[in-house]
Amino acid sequence: MNEQEYSNGFDEILQMDIKQVPYNDTSYLEYTKLNKSRFNRWIKTGVLLQQNILQLKNINKQQNWVLITEHWCGDAAHIVPFIIKLAAINPLINLEIQLRDSNSEIENYLTNGGKSIPILIIRDENKKDIVVWGPRPKECQFLYLEMKKDNIELNEQKIQLQNWYNHDNGVSIQNEICALLPLA
After folding, report:
1. CA 20 to 30 Å from 9, out of 2, 78, 80, 136?
2. Average pLDDT value for residue range 168-179
3. pTM for the complete prediction?
4. What are phi and psi of 96, to 5 degrees?
């Protein structure tokens, strides 16, 4: 799916009369509603750094970006908008969004044996993987792992991660991805 189809997916999920798994669970429905708001906020207000824009404009060979995500994923609500913005800088970047639980490539990109998302796979013009990034920026992942190790309650984890993303303003996401890109 493309960016517009992904964006429209929030409303499609929220407007379904009969909710499909996992959205038949009200908590997933609430996550999706909250994530729609966060996604839209970052799409409207997220700013790319000039050095990253210049680097992306200098890409001179086709790249195929595959983003594996889900609408209910809290991290994705903060990350996906920046990946969409990065990919839009250069017409040589083709962005394909796959839903993790709907025939995606996630089984080939497990994180410590789990289906953590979002995952971004960047492929060259020959469809060979050149970058795999995710599921979170390094600093955020460290925070998450420390909270898990310390048995921090789930709601508190969510609050701390939300605060981290709000404070970071997408800087780590774009800097980490751009640092992994080939120079030419």
Report:
1. 136
2. 98
3. 0.95
4. -120, 130
- The pairs formed by 101-106 with CB atoms below 8 angstroms and a separation of 24 or more are 101/22, 101/70, 104/68, 105/66, 105/68, 106/68
Please report which confidence band the pLDDT of residue 184 belongs to, taking 50, 70 and 90 as the band edges: low
- Give 3-27 as a 3 state SS string: HHHHHHHHHHHHHCCCCCCCCCCHH
Q: Indicate the length of the chain as a whole number.
A: 184
151: left (phi over 0), alpha (psi -120 to 50) or beta: left
Half-sphere exposure of 51 (CA within 13 A, CB side): 9
End-to-end CA distance of the chain: 27
Task: Output the six-digit token pair for 119.
Answer: 């995952």
**CA angle, 42 then 92 then 87, to 5°:** 10
Mention every residue, 6+ apart, whose C-beta is less than 8 A from residue 35. 10, 71, 72, 73, 74, 76, 77
The CATH code of the domain at 3-136+174-180 is 3.40.30.10
